[in-house]
Design goal:
Keywords: Membrane, Transmembrane, Transmembrane helix, Transport. It is a multi-pass membrane protein. It is found in: Membrane. The chain is an all-alpha fold and about 500 residues long. Helix 5 runs antiparallel to helix 8.
Amino acid sequence: MSNGADKKVAEDKTNMGNLHSYLHSFTHSNIPILTTLYFVQGLPYGIQARFLPIYLRAKNVSLTNLGFIKLLLLPWLLKIVWAPLLDRYSSKQTWLLISMAGLMLASLAGAAIDEEHFLSLCVVVFFMNFFASTQDIAVDGIAVAILSADELGKGNTAQVVGYKLGSIVGGGGLVWLSDYVAWHHLFLFLSVTYLSTIVLVCQLSQLQNTYLRNYQSKSNRDCKDIETKTGNKCESNMNGYIPTSHTKDLKEMCNKETEGADYHRPVDSTDGEKKRTGREDDWWMLQVLRSPGTGWMIVYCLLYKLGEQGANGMFPLYLVDQGIPKGAVGMWTGVVGQGLSIVGSLLGGWLLTGHSNRTPLDLLHLTFTLRLLPIILQMVVIWEGNTGELLYSYGFAVASMCLLQLVGGVITTATFTTMMHCSRQAPSSILGSHYTSLATFEVMGKLLFMTVAGSLTDFFGYFNMYVFFAFLSVGVMPLLKYCPINFHKNE
């Protein structure tokens, strides 16, 4: 009996050790934590993009008004205003905690209001977008700093997959659950989710220390050399992730001294500043715009998704107009379709992590061509009409939605990887702000277009708008020929 008891105790200890090892590896790994943070960040987008349009269209809200609801995403455009504040003050972990607490409180407010009070609902969703966009700044700043060149594919996969999983739960998931669960319980579930994430965010010091141990092994030696040679104290970055521009200047001065350059003037010399950087005192947005490849990247971000976004936004509403039950539409477009979008994102990440010689640009050339097929198929379905009565037409509708989401997932991963390559060419002092700016322009193009797409569809009709969506998808393809981004790995 004692041997059996000892064996059971040993097994229990082994299991506990395995659990502890798993939890330890999770909290000390970059990718799972980033995936979780992007998941909770995607919940408000799912509510905004999938849940509310289908839910309200079933109550006969006009396409024009549904388009104007997109303005609740305004914080995603304005976040560049407060992005520099997050880079300069406090730590990324602190801002994450603040944004998580805000999301939890907004969800509790959503549980307290009546679903018929449309204005109150809009206010809740607006503040959810505000805190989610603030969280995005903090997480993007961490991701850009801690991911090596070899991890960019995995990191962007974590970003896209986590965000889309959140949008599935907040979009199609809530549409389906709304037939069985009361409105108040849905938002209580969201608040519990954010509370759980706050507990996880408190463990981010583990992630920060993991990175700092790798970084300090080199930076501490550099700082000692700087202090010895110049008598200037090496300035550490408040966020603990990237060196400050002052530290960078000191390092450059030490390098010039080591190379025998005549560089013994003070660091704050005006001539020296101009010689080294020239424009470090400029407004941070000007530094962003002057970074290599940024102009092209902004134009691309504004245009690349317009046709696809229009098709994804209008086709589910067309199906609701055809008499398809909102639960079925929400399941196909918000759960199955978004699930395939995640598969596409995983596929894109796999293709960009050393399993092929394709660059993000090569992948975009291929997927932009494939994207035309489901858009044209949806045009045929709309031209045929009677989707709710014709089985084959309904089958084509479902297939086109799934294919468009699959291809769109690959495109999104390739695009965000391209954006990170562009941001890595920017000065280290504005890495977070640079990537946040690109992400803002990426949202801006889709938001402004979808704000007016409903009104245009009410006026021109579904089919004519789909001709326009196809034109936009084709028109962006020549832009890839002029891409100036350097995709070669550099450490």
